[in-house]
Amino acid sequence: MLHIINKSPFENSTLDSCLRIAKSGGAVLLIEDAVFAATKGSAAESKIKQAMAGMKVYALQPDLAARGVADRVIDGVTLVDYAGFVDLVAENPKLQSWL
Amino acid sequence: MKFGIMVSEGPYTHQASDSAYNFAKAALEKGHEIYRVFFYHDGVNNGTAFTTPPQDDRNIVNRWSELAQQHNLDLVVCVAAAQRRGIVDADEQKRHGKSGNNLAPGFRISGLGQLVEAGIQCDRLVTFGD
Fold this sequence. Notes:
- Chain A has helices at residues 14-21, 45-51, 61-66, 82-91, and strands at 2-5, 27-30, 56-60, 78-80, 95-98.
- In chain A, strand 1 (2-5), helix 1 and strand 2 (27-30) form a beta-alpha-beta unit.
- In chain A, 31% of the residues lie in helices and 20% in strands.
- With 99 residues, chain A is an alpha/beta fold.
- In chain B, helix 1 runs parallel beside helix 2 (60-71).
- In chain B, 38% of the residues lie in helices and 20% in strands.
- Chain B has a single domain (2-128), classed as 3-Layer(aba) Sandwich (Hypothetical Protein Ychn, Chain: A).
- Chain A binds chain B through residues 4, 6, 31-33, 62-63, 81-83, 85-87, 89-90, 95, 97, 99, and chain B through 1, 3, 8, 14-16, 19, 22-23, 25-27, 29-30, 32, 123-124, 126-130.
């Protein structure tokens, strides 16, 4: 299952809600302001590292670049472009946008 | 693969409409089908032809219209959400006695059943919102 998060972890709790409920084996895609969660040194870093023990974590590269943080991505987070986003949706029969 | 897209945020708010557009474009480039884009809640504001952004900014509404024309997309605006927000086509203008209409080219006004049907017909339904 693919979980799509689009809000900063410093703005609301969708990342926390998702990580609490998501089952291991799934995938999390961080887009829009949620990409801040994928940056080194942020308060969300430990949550992402913990999540990566059981799930694949992806971040949308164009959204990282737009925010000037593309060079600060946590090791182990996989970067995708929009084509990669489409592939993730195609590969996962179930998806949830956490709005 | 057959994709449906729902947009529930207006243009120039955060990024939902941009993300949805970029996703749709990438999906089409990869040879997937976009069965329908359903604009719901504030997302209906993506369908007003009166949108006039500064010339050096992207025109989100025109961009959807152009994509629809190029790929024969079905852009559906929720009727109840549209009426609340003053998004009106010629028929709705006549029915409600309004002074004008503003539904952008390539969009059509219909009901929530179109979202349900997209959910049934599509392999995936991707939601973009606030």
